[in-house]
Structures are given as C-alpha cells and as structure tokens.
Amino acid sequence: MKLKSLLAASAAAFALFAGAPAIAEDAAPPAADLPAGPEGPALWSVSDEDTTIYLFGTVHALPKEVKWYDPEIAGALAQADTIVTEIKMDPGSEAAMQQLAMSKGMLPAGTTLRSLLDEEQTASYEAALGKIGVPAQAFDQLKPWMVGLSLTMVPLMQQGYSPDSGVEKIVLSKAGDKPQDALETAEFQLGIFDGLPIDQQIAFMMSAAEGIDEVKATLDAMVAEWVEGDADALAEIMNEDMDDPALAEALLYQRNANWADWIEARLAEPGTVFIAVGAGHLAGANSVQDYLAEKGIETARVQ
Prior knowledge:
six-stranded mixed sheet; alpha/beta
C-alpha cells in the first residue's frame, strides 16, 4: 500500500470513526483556509409510504469556526423521531470507549512498540513524536494501531480540530431529548483496528508518522469538499486512494453493507429517522447508497 494511500487512510480513519480515541490534546490556534460559511453538506433521504430516513455524512472533529448547520439540515433534524449515530455518544458511553480503547490497545507484557520496528522505522517514528512534543517512550506499551490513530489525531487537535466541534456533537445538542440509537458498538469499531495483522498495523502507524506534516492539509481538503456538498470530490480524497482491499473492506465496505441492511429493516417501521455517519460512507463506490440500490431501494439527494 502506497504512502499516499495510507495517509489518506489515516485521515479517513479520523474522519470516519466516531469513537476513535485521542491520547492527548493541546491548546490549538485557529485553523486556516477552511470554508467560513455553509455551502450545503450533502444530505440524502430514503423513504416509503410511512417512513423517511435521512442520511447525513459527518466529520467527527472540526475546527470550531467551520460553519455548516443550515436550514435544510435543521429541518430534517426537526422532523426526526430518532437520531442514529455510528456508536452511542452520551458521556457514559464515551468514558467506557476510552477505557475499552486503552484495554484493547495495550501490548502484551514484555513487548514494546519500538521492539516491533526496524531501525529505519524507529527513526521515522521517533522523529514524528518529536514534532508533536511527545517523548520517544510515551507510547511504548501501545499497539501500533492505537499509536497510528493517535499520530493522526494529536497533530490535528494541536492545530485546531476538536471532537467537541464535530458534527455528531452539534447534531445531538440540537436534537435535545429525542431518542437516540446506534448502528455499531464501540467494541466493534475498535475491533476493526485491533483485528488487523501486526504488519498492517505497523504500516498504518508508519503512514501516520511519515505523513504527520501533511495530515492536516489532507483533512482540510476533505472538510472543504464536505462543506460544499461535493460527495464525488470527497470520495476521491477519502476513499479512492485506499488501494489495500482488506483495509477498504474493513473500514468501509462491509460496514456500509451492514448499514444498508439496517436501513432496509428500519423501513418496515413507520416514523422519521436522522442518521449521521462519517461522510466517507456516503461517498464513492460501494457507498451505503450503492448497497441500498442493490436492494432496489432508491436514495434521493435532498441537498
């Protein structure tokens, strides 16, 4: 898998996974060169005679100055009886997620992260840690996938991105006390990374280390296309560079197929549902919409 592809995968993981755990967060200056006003993030709907399901693609962390909440999204959210996210996002669930991440993300006793790396990898890895002000030994007890996520998220948070400004947090705050549901569990999401072979975990981590100076520019580009509602351009950045079939299947395609099954089943019940999931799942080939189309279920672009 090429470095460009792995860098896209690292940024995509940050954008796709609602529960991706952060290890550190520093005070951040404002992010620059991002859209300042709503252009129309993409919104779709699936419906039958007594059910409407809105599909809204999200970015799980954003700079606070990015404005995207517009009347079309507000109207769809107001109509909804239930709000559905990838995983439960109440404070108790988030705390449990952090505990689970640290449990799954620890290496066996007697094994250190750097002992799994060759000399060249170790040098690149330690250089990346130095760039974000983290001591070389800080992550020695963590599995490569956990460190890979952290090396993607920490520099983004240091440069202005925050889950507190993420789309799900805003949607849930606007939804008030409406019932909430989830498509997946935190254990399932973390299990995707924890189940990767160790060499693939290391490749994922090294891509984050070697692309640490570029990850913000990559996510900035994703956010710019997302705010404009250009799902095709977003897919080019987020999905199409993931040329490792196993990683693409695990991160995107199988989950999209599962969610299409969920939507098909939910159409059998009356009501209105607002689903907010990572934008990459609703863009490009093998999207949720593609799997719905295979079932004969039409998706209409609302915005």
